[in-house]
Amino acid sequence: MNTPTTPPPALERLPRARLPDLLARMPKAELHIHIEGSLEPELIFALAHRNGVALPYASVQALRAAYAFTDLQSFLDIYYAGASVLLREEDFFDMAMAYFRRAAADGAVHAELFFDPQTHTARGVSMGTVVEGLARAQAQAADELGVSSALILCFLRHLSEEDAFATLEAALPWRERFVGVGLDSSERGHPPEKFSRVFARCRALGLRVVAHAGEEGPPAYIRTALDDLQVERIDHGVRCADDPALVVELARRRTPLTVCPLSNVKLCVYPRMEDHALPALLRAGLCVTVNSDDPAYFGGYLLENYRALFAAHPALGPREAWQLAANSFEASFADAATKARWQQALAVAVQSLAD
Ligand code: ADE
Ligand code: ZN
To answer: What local confidence, expressed as pLDDT, does residue 1 receive?
Structure first.
């Protein structure tokens, strides 16, 4: 189990007026970003041109205008169409480097990136092309930007268990390149337990395990992600708020939730940011983190998610900002010494703003 960090004493002296600076300057980790969801329309068009791929949109503006989603599926249809321009190793490299630059500008010191190999292998792109392109960007981001990172291979839950097993097999030659596995795509009608045996095999291989659950799906999916898949983090998980006993259980276990505020509003999980459950979940003692999900589609990268959340919830102040950043380190898959170094850097950032 993870252990919470104690707040630095300087936090008490930090006035609310310093909140914008604190949000921007505090070091933080991003734990829920689909790298294919960082493809900006401009890059989609540039890659389409470079690779000779025809797009069903006439222009960048026409594509952006289509980003009016009513639920998760309406988004996924466009998201998979956008990913169709990714063909060569450089494409994956360029996409990930563009993301790392944005993340670094937002104060991220670490990112754990989801990638969806089935979206690419189904189009004839090899696993090696995907993984090597991303890995090259990871190395460059560490060198040039000081941003460390890890990859999490996601299985598409609308596809079969058999397909997931085949994907895992195909990825094993690159086993050292990814730290864990996740579960994403259309949630309703595809409960976590559909993949119990795949996840058991992944755990036996020593992979870390996470799953999307309780984004649109019911709290029961969060329970089966915990009990059947034995995940270490729940991605989204906000619908636990409908089940008070589950909230208590998640707080007791300190199971991290990787929450994505702008995504939840864009995909109509909540009508407005003011209605978001994050502040209540934080008050209930859950290890909640803030993340961007698919920033190119949802109107903002990591810092914009913090800003939009804090702007809509005046009860959130410097103490909660610190807590969310501290949680992001606690919930990461980094080793204990690295986490302690990040927590120290966070305390130093708070101290320098309080002086
Ligand atoms: N794939 C990319 N973004 C996703 C999300 N928010 N939920 C499920 N699958 C996804
Ligand atoms: Zn997601």
So the answer is: 57
Q: Enumerate residue ranges in the chain where pLDDT < 50.
A: none
212 lines ligand 1 (CB under 6 A): yes
Q: Is residue 3 part of a domain?
A: no
* Residue ranges of E strands in 106-195: 108-115, 148-156, 180-184
- Among 72, 235, 257, 305, residue to substitute to test ligand 1 (most atoms within 8 Å of Cβ): 72
H-run or E-run covering 247: helix 244-253
Cα 14 to middle of ligand 2, angstroms: 33
Considering the candidates 215, 304, 320, 330, report the single residue annotated as catalytic.
215
Residue 226 sits in a domain whose CATH number is 3.20.20.140
- Which ligand places an atom closest to the C-alpha of 116? 1
CA 69 to chain centre: 19
Start-to-end CA span in the chain (Å):
34
Give tens-digit pLDDT for 211-257.
Answer: 999 999 999 999 999 999 999 999 999 999 999 999 999 999 999 99
Mark the residues whose beta carbon lies below 5 A from ion ligand 2: 293
- Could you give the number of structural domains in the chain? 1
pTM value is 0.98
Residue 16, in any domain of the structure:
yes
pLDDT of 354: 92
Q: Which residue's CA is minimally distant from atom 1 of ligand 1?
A: 185
215 included as an active-site residue: yes
CA of residue 74 relative to chain centroid, distance: 19
Predicted confidence at residue 3, as pLDDT, reads 72
Whether residue 1 is contained in a domain is answered as no
Pocket test for ligand 1, best of 69, 74, 76, 118 (most atoms within 8 A of CB): 76
Q: Which ligand is nearest to the CA of 72?
A: 1
Nearest CA residue ID for atom 6, ligand 1: 293
Mutual orientation of helices 161-171 and 196-204 as an angle, nearest 10°? Answer: 20
Looking at residue 355, its pLDDT comes to 87
